[in-house]
Amino acid sequence: MSELPASIADAAALLRRRATTSAELTEIALTAAHRDPYNAWLHVADAHARAQARQADERLAKSDASPLLGIPWACKDIIGTKGIPTTAASKILEGYKPPYSATVVERLDAAGAVMLGKTNLDEFAMGSSNENSAFGPVQNPWDTTRVPGGSSGGSAVAVAAGQAMFGLGTDTGGSIRQPGALSGVAAMKPTYGRVSRFGVVAFASSLDQVGPFGQTVDDCAIVCQALFGKDPNDATTMPLAVDDLRRDIGKGVKGLRIGVPKEFFIDGMEKDVERAVRDALRWYEKEGAELVDVSLSLTDHGLAVYYIIQPAEASSNLARYDGVRFGLRVEGKDLLDTYRRTRGQGFGAEVKRRMIIGTYALSAGYYDAYYVKAQKVRTLIKAEFDAAFAKCDAIVTPTSPTVAFKIGQKVDDPLAMYLNDVFTLPGNIAGLPGISIPCGFSQGLPIGLQIMANSFQEATMFRVAAAFERATAFHEARPEAA
Amino acid sequence: MPIDRQTVVHVADLARIALTDAEIERFTGQISVVLDAVDRLAEVDTSAVPPAASALPIHNVERDDEPRPGLTNEQALANAPKGGRDGEFFRVQEVLEAR
Predict the structure, then answer these.
(1) A338, A342, A354, A356: best mutation site toward chain B, by most B Cβ within 10 Å?
(2) Which of A17, A26, A124, B58 has its CA 20 to 30 A from that of B22?
(3) In chain B, what residues touch A380 (CB-CB under 8 Å)?
């Protein structure tokens, strides 16, 4: 075997037939990760991965049925891994080795998955292009002059380029779904409250959620099944029994109502993106789904809500990087000066911009006008989604208004960069699950289709996404090796 | 609302971030554009709308106050910055003047 299997289910079947071993899959992945030409990896953990693969092969010999047993995966470097460097792609955390693993890592460890190493991202997950990494940008494997999307670009590329069977990312405004779209893989953000963030570097706590990248929709569902559920260490995880997320995945869409919000078909959207999404909607209708017009009139204001709440929460969360207990310290003339220099030199430009915006929005005299106002509009946005989901089972939209853009094209124009997430961030504001799947190409670059469902209705979201995937071959296309 | 250079300097100071002159120049313009865009929220009537802190319907999650194992001293100190450890302590510059 020279390449990784095309899905987790395929790999699991091969492992059970003894046609391969976890050790073999892991070596294929490690070799590919070491040869990675896209700067997708910040740390490849060979010894750790080989040890986990050995343990997985022992469990396989005992007929252990865990679907993720022996499956090699890529971990966004904002997710804490005990004893393995975790940097959030920031100089301020360079060399940091967490004393404990995130709950999501522990759950995948328990499932027998093999953690290969840590993937590149925008610093502290702040970005939509992966150009904000302190350790250099990630390139898109479909065209290396272009961005892979962000912030979870490294995990997206690791899956797209066949270096890992699945990846984990975090999504605060689109940071899983948008790089999934631009890199041509399945990429899913769960409902807020589904997955523990314990041990994940905090960005904007009312929005952050951990989720998977996979080669298929089913891959994402299998990983979610292992991740979901209450964690006593994260008070925002819902005390819900986790349903079988794959129970409806093969059912098709006949009789389902699919909401189409006109506000998601905007000026400035690329024609090929619109065409591919409209084609997908027509396909759903042909398969017996009913297309329903829904109104999300505040979509446009979502960006404003997001660019207040997110930097405000981030400015609070990132106050902990003070150079005292861990990470970089740049000593100044007194302690206050040490804080200022440490943060001035340790944070990159985008992080500093957001710290200033967030601190400003929370400062005396502006708190009500910005932060509280944004929280009120957040209530209205959530209410609009509630009204929409009273009329439909899922909402289908483009994931991003454009395909992958050129590296450097938007770095000096923060607002243009922020617009990449205009279709994904409403899902974070309202806490909804969403998945991006490949639905076409524009001049050789992948286009993403976003399927959103109501809170905790991931099974329906997977059903709608999997139906399209089964009928099309977009997810089977792979970039040519660079 | 555009933001001026002086405000950027003041807010960066509140955020404990030292900026270079070039950064102050660049950020003042860039942040003004972003604040200008978020000012559009004023268009939305929110007079009878409560604020939402998150999308989640749960509040005030409690647990029993029972001791649980935590980090050892050594684990907690292991990531101390260069020059930031003194035996069992983190070392920082003095904040209280000696009497």
Answers:
(1) A356
(2) A124
(3) 44, 46, 49
Q: Token digits for B12?
A: 């960066």
What CA–CA distances, in Å, run from A209 to A292, A308, A376, A402?
Answer: 28, 18, 22, 24
- List the single residue in B20, B31, B76 with the smallest CB-CB distance to A357: B31
Report helix angle B21-38 to A349-362, nearest 10: 50
Residue of A nearest to B12 (CA): A356
Judgement on whether residues A349 and A243 belong to the same structural domain of the protein = no
Q: Which amino acid is at B23?
A: E
Same-domain pairing of A246 and A324: no
Nearest-angstrom CA–CA distance, A95 and A326: 9
Is residue A166 situated within a structural domain? yes
Q: How close A364 gets to chain B, by Cα (Å)?
A: 11
Q: Considering only the beta carbons, identify the residue of A415, A431, A455 that sits closest to B34.
A: A415
CA angle (A153 as vertex; A147, A156 as ends), nearest 5: 115
pLDDT in tens, A61-108: 999 999 999 999 999 999 999 999 999 999 999 989 999 999 999 999
Q: Where are the domains of chain B?
A: 5-42
pTM (whole model) above 0.90: yes
Residues A18 and A115 in one domain: yes
The answer to ipTM > 0.85 is yes
Residue at which a domain ends, from A377, A402, A432: A377
A230 and A92 share one domain: yes
pLDDT digits (tens, 9 = 90+) for B18-75: 999 999 999 999 999 999 999 999 999 999 999 999 888 888 888 899 998 999 999 9
Band the pLDDT of B99: cuts 50, 70, 90. Answer: low
The parent domain of residue A341 ranges over 300-377
Instruction: For residue A231, give both structure tokens.
Output: 């964690």
Distance from CA of A313 to the nearest CA of B (A): 11
**Which two three-digit tokens encode residue A332?**
């100044």
Residues A213 and A312 in one domain: no
Task: At B86, list the tokens.
Answer: 């003194």
> What is the CATH number for A41?
3.90.1300.10
Residues of A annotated as catalytic are: 76, 151, 175
Question: Are residues A246 and A304 both part of a single domain?
Answer: no
- Indicate whether A34 belongs to any domain: yes
Query: A-B interface: how many C-beta pairs under 8 angstroms?
Result: 183
Q: Structurally, how many domains does chain A consist of?
A: 2
A481 has a pLDDT exceeding 90: no
- Kindly determine whether residue A356 and residue B17, on different chains, have CB atoms separated by under 8 Å: yes
* Nearest CB neighbour to B17, from listed A328, A343, A363: A343
Please answer yes or no on whether A377 and B30 come within 8 Å at the CB atom. no
Average of pLDDT values for A419-444?
Answer: 97
> Minimal CA–CA distance to A437: which of A189, A267, A192, A264?
A189
Q: Is residue A433 part of a domain?
A: no
Amino acid residing at A36: D
Domain end, chosen from A377, A394, A421, is at A377
On whether both A319 and A244 belong to a single domain, the answer is no
Closest CA to A164 of A155, A152, A153, A176: A155
Residue A63 lies in a domain: yes
Q: Are residues A217 and A308 in the same domain?
A: no
